[in-house]
Amino acid sequence: MPSDAAAKGVKLERYASGGALLLRRVASGKFVSASSHLLFRATVLATLALVFLFALHYPSLLSRSFSLASADGASSSSSSAPSRSHRSLLASSSAAATYGSERWQKEIRRSAKPRRDGGLSVLVTGAGGFVGAHCSLALKARGDGVVGLDNFNSYYDPALKRGRQALLADRGVVVLDADINDALLLEKLFEAVPFTHVLHLAAQAGVRYAMEAPQTYVASNVAGLVSVFEAAAKHADPQPAVVWASSSSVYGLNTDAPFSEDHRTDRPASLYAATKKAGEAIAHAYNHIYGLSITGLRFFTVYGPWGRPDMAYFSFARSIVAGEPITLYADARRDFTYIDDVVKGCVGALDTAGRSTGSARSGKKSGPAPLRVYNLGNTSPVPVTRMVAILEKLLGKKANKRIIAMPSNGDVPFTHANVSHAAHDFGYRPTTSLDAGLRHFVDWFVQYYKLDIKIAKPAASKKPAATKKKTSATSASS
Ligand SMILES: O=C(O)[C@H]1O[C@H](OP(=O)(O)OP(=O)(O)OC[C@H]2O[C@@H](n3ccc(=O)[nH]c3=O)[C@H](O)[C@@H]2O)[C@H](O)[C@@H](O)[C@@H]1O
Asked: Where are the bilayer-spanning segments (predicted)?
């Protein structure tokens, strides 16, 4: 081709446009023939078609101005899976306006407006996620304003996330299709609304999956966290207080029990744990330099209705129903914590967060700001075999179990929370037994998947306090 062009005295010039390389012919003295014109047009059309297809699959690799122009305010997505990219371009979220537009701002402000005196205005990242959706519902129910964002990636079935989004939309909470790594989107959000708090729950979860997709953990849990702290520190005026999801996994190879916030967290057993531990160090730096009020919450194996299908209790329930085998790691124990208890902890942490002391304008802080970290666990570890036994009873079917020694996949043998700090500072008291919590989960599970299963009745309990009433978040989900 180049030699042919040279022979015709035509110079080919390469230049970039919209992420694709176009070839332009520049005539050097001679007329370009009609057939060359046709060929040129066909090439341009084919290139444009390729650009369109490229944009459809990889919007994150294109420029910022592209994401600004997208129809639903979707952002770039370093951490999201391809299905989100399609959706962000083709589908519309409840805030269907171009982000930054007047209509978009109006929708965001309406969703963010508290309906009670002294109410909070909270940006919830990961609002399409398990904990994020429940917290958003609880905040909205008590009269706080909530704006959610989520990239709806396909780490697990996005339909479940869309279901949670629909639930939130019913309550008047907007959840934007957006990624925490989209700095411009975050700037626009903080420009539009003076959020009092950020509840940052968007993350790449799952301990074992980190061996398969290590970079997604860095993109979400490290780069994404920095992106949120950057926006909160430098583009919000006044700065909000940030409460974010760390993890019980930071205790890693710690053997002192129950795990206390004062114990060592410098021996992570998985990359997932290491990214959460890195997050805690990053939080320290942003608090120190910019005066951001930051609270990290170490969640302990949170479960319940609308939960995560990648987690053991959920995937085991599916396998039991389907008659498929499950693999149990011998002697593994977890401090399983029910979602309603965790929601109360998150809300308590938000309510007691204390103000940030920095200024986005001057870049200076007026004094030290709060920097806190709390365990949110259930304080009673249970063997995983016991969790399976409860599921078997509720579902009326035996599991096809295969018990093996715990593989070296990042798992730790047990977790056990000491929650005295959270109890002292915001009255955190978990009250849901694993039996009661799994019953709520199975109720929802059977309904959600329209299963023809009669759930076993609870045995008469001597301790009625353990089967506490459902909160609004749980009732909403069942
Ligand atoms: O507490 C935490 O910090 C973490 O809790 C869970 O991680 P994990 O406790 O590993 O939860 P599951 O994946 O549901 O596993 C629960 C238990 O089942 C065991 N398990 C898991 C999978 C399996 O096939 N077999 C099996 O015995 C695990 O070893 C573990 O003891 C979440 O997935 C993490 O995102 C969260 O940060």
From this structure: 38-58
- The tens digit of pLDDT for each residue in 349-358 reads 999 999 999 9
CA 158, 160, 161, 167 dihedral sign is positive
304 CA to centre of ligand 1 in angstroms: 14
- Token pair in block for residue 101: 């537009």
Q: What are phi and psi of 277, to 5 degrees?
A: -65, -40
Residues 157 and 266: their CA atoms lie apart, in Å, by 33
**Spatial distance between the Cα atoms of 416 and 418, rounded to a whole number of angstroms:** 7
Question: What residues line ligand 1, using a CB cutoff of 6 Å?
Answer: 205-207, 247-249, 299-301, 311-312, 327-329, 332, 334, 384, 411, 415
Cα–Cα distances in angstroms (integers) from residue 141 to residues 25, 116, 133, 136, 355, in the given order: 63, 11, 12, 8, 24
Count Cα neighbours of 82 within 13 Å in the Cβ-side half-sphere: 6
Mean pLDDT, residues 87-93 taken together: 33
Q: Cα of 409 to ligand 1 centre, how many Å?
A: 11
Which of 300, 313, 334 has the most ligand 1 atoms within 8 A of CB, as the residue to mutate?
A: 334
Number of the ligand 1 atom closest to the C-alpha atom of 326: 24
Q: At what angle do helices 384-395 and 312-322 cross, to 10 degrees?
A: 40
Q: Can you tell me the distance from the alpha carbon of 423 to that of 375, in angstroms, rounded to the nearest whole number?
A: 10
Active site positions, annotated: 272
Q: Both ends of the chain: CA-CA distance in Å?
A: 65
| Model confidence band, residue 93 (pLDDT cutoffs 50, 70, 90) | very low
* Beta carbons within 8 Å of 454's beta carbon, 6+ residues apart: 396
Query: Which amino acid residue places its CA nearest to atom 31 of ligand 1?
Result: 332
What single-letter amino acid sits at 275? T
Measured in Å, residue 245 CA sits from the centre of ligand 1 at 16
Instruction: Encode pLDDT of 221-277 as tens digits.
Output: 999 999 999 999 999 999 999 999 999 999 999 999 999 999 999 999 999 999 999
